Amino acid sequence: MTRKNIWSLLAMVLVGIGISWYSLRNVKLSNLKNDILTLNWWWLLVALGCMALYFGLEALVVQKFVRHRYRKFSFKSALRVPLAEQLFNGITPFSSGGQPAQIFVMAQSGIDAGRASSVALMKFVVFQAMVVLNFLVAMIVGFQYLASKLSYLSLYVLFGFLIHFAVIVGLLLVMYWYQFTKRAVRIVLIPVGWFMKAERFERFQANINLKIDSFYEESLRMTKDWRMLVEVAVLTFLQLFFYYLIPYFIMRAMGYHGLSIIMVTSLNVLIFLVTSLFPIPGGAGGAEFGFTELFAKFIPSHSKLILAMLIWRILTYYLGLFLGMIAMAIRPEKAEEIPAAELPANAQGTKK
């Protein structure tokens, strides 16, 4: 990690401490202590297990994308990818550092940088598609509750969905309407050139075109392997499913019974979309606000509500930062590229 990244990490930890202190300002310490002592730790372990499955399933997705071109890419090496992604997503605005971090970690394991970029992009496409699919299900289940109880949040949720949907459309255009996308990107980049030196703008434009070309070629190759894409989609759906279940198990740990697991899970899907709108790394502030507003009905005790929110943030955000630092410190294992002569026809690349 660079010095700038370390400072960003420290800043986010301090922001988290500040938000926690602000959230606890109206909570009696005696009530908070009693709530902690009465927690059912077995249910918390289940919630922790869901987070472990979230990381583990993403590691399996990475392995499936890489195994067609590389041997000896272990689960340990694959696990470093989502953990590094979690760390750099958590310390950069709009989670912009996650993609470069994945590419860097895969390159450390001997994966060609171009191939690593394509894997990261294809993984992102599938992830976004599953986010949109989960959102559509959550809308059916939980949007009426959201619109009736918290109508002001419904606009944020819809806006978050539109952003994710627009990303999917843009990536699909690259995959299936390549020439049009190239022309559209050139037009969109014209105003950018007004604010950059000509030489720098040319390099920037060339880099964008290179990424589009790489993604296009890789997408053509990967879309021929429908079995792998279906497997990756199922794994990603399960990955998100376990992540969305975490608030339910936290509530069970606090002694709440008779909860609708479908409703609680659906509301967490909506929180995910609200959080993505906040430019602050990790959605700090927005995530905490969304959780307390959406789950106040399910957790009537204010002290328990705040405690549930803090546990949820520790599991879904700060745990990833901590594990990401460990992953970056682990010495990478080198994978072995499969010679072109040994590759199946659908893995040898596609020429435009």
Report the total helices.
13
Output the structural class: mainly alpha
Q: How far is it from the N-terminal to the C-terminal residue, by CA?
A: 38 Å
Radius of gyration: 22 Å
Q: Percent of residues in beta strands?
A: under 5%
Shape: globular
Spans of at least 5 consecutive residues whose pLDDT stays below 50 are none
Task: Tell me the helix content.
Answer: over 70%
Could you state the order of secondary-structure elements as H and E? HHHEHHHHHHHHHHE
Can you summarize this structure?
The protein has 352 residues and is an all-alpha fold. Helices cover 76% and strands 1% of the residues. The two termini are 38 Å apart.
Describe the structure.
This protein is mainly α. It has one domain (about 40-340). It has helices spanning about 5-25, 30-35, 40-65, 75-90, 100-110, 115-150, 150-175, 180-195, 200-225, 225-255, 260-275, 285-295, 300-330; strands at about 70, 335. It has a two-stranded antiparallel sheet with strand order 1-2. The longest helix is centred in the middle third of the chain and has 37 residues, at about 115-150. The radius of gyration is 22 Å and the shape is globular. The relative contact order is 0.17. This is Phosphatidylglycerol lysyltransferase.
What is the strand and helix layout of this fold?
Blueprint: H1 3-23, H2 29-37, H3 41-66, E1 70-71, H4 75-90, H5 98-108, H6 113-149, H7 151-176, H8 178-193, H9 198-223, H10 226-253, H11 261-275, H12 286-295, H13 302-329, E2 336-337
Antiparallel strand pairs: 1-2
